[in-house]
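Figure 2 data, in text form.
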Amino acid sequence: MTLPGNDATLAPTGDRWSRAELEQAFAGYQRTVETAKETGNWDLFAEMFTEDANYVEHAYGTFAGREEIRPWINRTMTSFPGSHMTAFPALWYTIDEDRGWVICEIDNPMCDPGDGSSHAASNLTILHYAGDGLWSCEEDVYNPMKFLTMAKNWCRAAEAAGTLPDEARRWLAKFGG
């Protein structure tokens, strides 16, 4: 298959996809995440997965199928701390053409807590491509304690700056001690 405006052949070779298709699919993944963040429509994220996809999230569990991914991603990204993350850029990525995987490091920066300080944590993401711009699996690998510490530090900075939202205050009371 060839996409409009692209001369590269995107058909899989045997059980594999061309590098061009994997690159294009990953670029689409990144654009979709950006659009979902900008619009607050995290259903767009869920739609990037096959109906029978698996999403492995080490702190939250494994979600089987697009319709389990959808409520989880909406809940996670519309509540603190996900709601205060400003972007999810890939710091680097590599493509495993033999497996049809994209492996990348995703940064998760928080908005300015009011004092100009920066707070972020990253994770490794492993995406399994399924063809037609869809993913059959995503696994996010990270140290939950680093994210916890980062979010606590953000809350403390926001509290000191007088900008700590009530939702974050409740989160800090629950997880920050």
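Caption note: The first strand starts at residue 49 and ends at 57.
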